């Protein structure tokens, strides 16, 4: 948390980023890179800006209530939102010329109203609360609260280049402090505000930024060097690179996606990580999948999902059209699971994963798949929840193909 108010230029950056995300529809990470590129801000300054921006988006309805404003009025009233954030945290107000202030008594009254309203307090839109209650019942309020917290920073050790202790020691020499995560042996939590991506360790491919919960997904595939492994929704390869490290660079690892630009990104990351057994293939239609029928020892289906488990990190998703997109996503998940599972050999393992905590995208999909495909059996599944783990929320199910 900040110990001193934002400077004028930091406050301007926060308002600019919020505007791009909330009014122009840009994803948060793209808005950050657009605003930060070329500025060469020190790590601590970047952290101050992302801390404030992140909390303003995670609890957008709360801060809009306190500032009596709304996102559409950001350009004119953004300074009042910034002031509300400072008052909420008991900080002096930033020195911004012509900024819009809030009277103390008015602020206190609005704060009391917010404390009595869990949806405001946890930064939760009504549609999400209704969905969470329907899907998770009595465990939802704890998840709702956990999803409003600031995410911790985690990195994954690249075992192709180093081990976790060597990485922690090298980073310490570069001014980055870390703590080992007990239950995930590849993960370090970063405890300093350092600019991670400017370290030589990063340039040398010693680590990737990846949530600790996410690191459990590739681990569930239990890959061995020499296997044939397919990561069929590989994106830019967060999990592919983890799989490559666990395969010690031996065997065949095929990364597939429907977006070529993501696979191009993946290739670049694989080069830096020293992951030489990764091959990429664009999915252009059902034939791409059919050709790989019964070919893989392991298949990972990290399917497109609502992202409702990772709202700490990507809070903008709850202020977008996620509710409308959910049925479309669920149809795509069912299609991918039904069709891409054909690539698994008899005796091979399929891992179905999402970054959602909603059973309709998780166990519900797996149960429907198993009902239609008795040639697979469920070995186990795991709900990694923000309230239960402190990590981002993920789901994974391990399925074995028992017959053709
Ligand atoms: C959850 S993301 C994958 C994240 C990635 N595995 C990682 O760890 O960085 C889902 C990916 O599925 C891809 N996708 C969407 N539709 C697909 C389809 N029909 N077949 C395969 N991949 C698809 C998206 O482009 C996206 O990259």
Automatic annotation (TrEMBL):
InterPro entries with a match to the protein in the record: MeTrfase_RsmB-F_NOP2_cat, MeTrfase_RsmB-F_NOP2_dom, RCMT, RsmB-like_ferredoxin, SAM-dependent_MTases_sf
Ranges for domain SAM-dependent MTase RsmB/NOP-type: 143-404
Active-site residues (renumbered): 355 (nucleophile)
Entry keyword Methyltransferase: yes
Protein name, as recorded: RsmB/NOP family class I SAM-dependent RNA methyltransferase
Binding site for S-adenosyl-L-methionine: 257, 302
Organism: Shewanella jiangmenensis
Alphabetical GO biological process terms: methylation
Family annotation (Pfam families): Methyltr_RsmB-F, RsmF-B_ferredox
Molecular function in Gene Ontology: methyltransferase activity
Family: Belongs to the class I-like SAM-binding methyltransferase superfamily. RsmB/NOP family.
Signal peptide bounds: none
Keyword terms of this UniProt record: Methyltransferase, RNA-binding, S-adenosyl-L-methionine, Transferase
């Amino acid at each position: 948390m900040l110990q001193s108010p934002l400077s004028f230029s930091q406050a301007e950056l926060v308002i600019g980023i919020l505007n791009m995300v909330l009014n122009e529809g840009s994803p948060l990470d793209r808005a950050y890179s657009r605003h930060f590129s070329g500025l060469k801000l020190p790590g601590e300054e970047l952290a101050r800006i992302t801390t404030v921006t992140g909390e303003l988006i995670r609890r957008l309805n709360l801060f809009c209530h306190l500032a009596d404003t709304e996102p559409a009025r950001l350009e004119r009233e953004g300074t009042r939102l910034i002031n509300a954030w400072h008052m909420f945290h008991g900080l002096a107000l930033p020195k911004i010329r012509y900024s819009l202030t809030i009277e103390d008594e008015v602020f206190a009254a609005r704060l009391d109203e917010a404390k009595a309203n869990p949806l405001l307090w946890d930064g939760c839109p009504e549609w999400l609360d209704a969905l969470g209650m329907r899907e998770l019942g009595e465990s939802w309020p704890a998840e709702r609260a956990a999803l409003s917290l600031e995410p911790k920073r985690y990195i994954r050790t690249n075992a192709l280049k180093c081990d976790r202790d060597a990485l922690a020691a090298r980073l310490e020499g570069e001014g980055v402090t870390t703590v080992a995560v007990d239950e995930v042996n590849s993960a370090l939590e970063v405890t300093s505000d350092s600019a991670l991506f400017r370290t030589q360790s990063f340039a040398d491919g010693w680590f990737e930024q990846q949530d600790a919960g996410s690191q459990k997904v590739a681990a569930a595939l239990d890959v061995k060097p020499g296997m044939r492994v397919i990561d069929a929704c590989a994106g830019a390869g967060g999990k592919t690179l983890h799989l490559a490290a666990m395969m010690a660079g031996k065997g065949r690892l095929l990364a597939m996606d429907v977006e070529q630009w993501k696979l191009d990104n993946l290739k670049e990351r694989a080069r830096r990580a020293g992951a030489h057994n990764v091959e990429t293939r664009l999915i252009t239609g059902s034939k791409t999948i059919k050709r790989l029928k019964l070919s893989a020892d392991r298949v990972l289906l990290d399917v497109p999902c609502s992202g409702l488990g990772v709202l700490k990190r990507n809070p903008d998703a709850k202020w977008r059209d996620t509710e409308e997109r959910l049925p479309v996503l669920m149809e795509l998940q069912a299609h991918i699971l039904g069709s891409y599972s054909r690539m698994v050999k008899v005796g091979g393992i399929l891992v179905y994963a999402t970054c959602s905590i909603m059973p309709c995208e998780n166990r519900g999909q797996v149960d429907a798949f198993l009902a239609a495909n008795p040639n697979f059996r469920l070995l186990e599944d795991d709900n990694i929840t923000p309230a239960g783990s402190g990590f981002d929320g993920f789901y994974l199910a391990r399925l074995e193909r028992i017959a053709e």
